[in-house]
Amino acid sequence: MKLSHILIIFLRVFAINWLLVGFFRLFVSIPMLTSNWLSAFYLAGPGVYFLAALLAWIFAVKIAKVLIGRADCDVQMAKEITPAMLFSTAFLGIGLYFFLTYLGGSLNWLHYLAITQAGHDLMTTAVDEDSNFYSLTSSLIPCLAGLALAACSPKLGRKLARATESQLSTPSE
Could you read off the pLDDT of 4-56 as tens digits, one per residue? Predict the structure, then answer.
């Protein structure tokens, strides 16, 4: 199985996850709808999840080709697994896990801040801006770090494999 196929499977599993989260958020948002046209923004959150699920499913192959690139290799479970393959797969999995896990929360906070900054505060309670910024960054930083880790996974895997091999080849004292 190629590394890109593993990534495609991973992306499509997250697409299913986002679809389910979108449905859950839709059921929570429907009771909040009023006759005010601004209340339709409550449907934007579930809409983003539905759109993300659709795009992740449709473009999973292209995303895998971009992220893996020329480093695509066969991952065989029983033989010919190199340390670089293992490290690359681990970095890719961890990076995508953090990126995809925190992407929804980041988009949700960006959407919320865009609405409140535009003067269309749909919430009835006042919320401290510092806590909003903290909540946004607590989702956005792991999201971006995961994306960077996934994008650099082949290079990091090769470097870590070389470092590990050089440590194993030097005689211990």
Answer: 777 877 788 788 778 877 887 787 777 777 777 777 777 888 888 899 999 98
Rg (CA), the chain: 21
Q: Is the Cβ–Cβ distance between 24 and 33 less than 8 Å?
A: no
Q: CA-to-CA distance for 112 and 114, rounded, in angstroms?
A: 5
Q: How confident is the model over 90-110, as pLDDT tens digits?
A: 888 888 888 988 888 888 888
Q: How far is CA 155 from the centre of its chain?
A: 20
Q: Residue 29: which H helix or E strand, with range?
A: helix 3-29
> Residue 56 gets which letter from DSSP?
H
| Contact in structure between 3 and 72 (CB atoms under 8 Å) | yes
Residue 149: CA atoms inside 13 Å, Cβ hemisphere, count?
A: 19
Inter-residue contact 107 to 48 (CB < 8 Å):
yes
Half-sphere exposure of 143 (CA within 13 A, CB side): 17
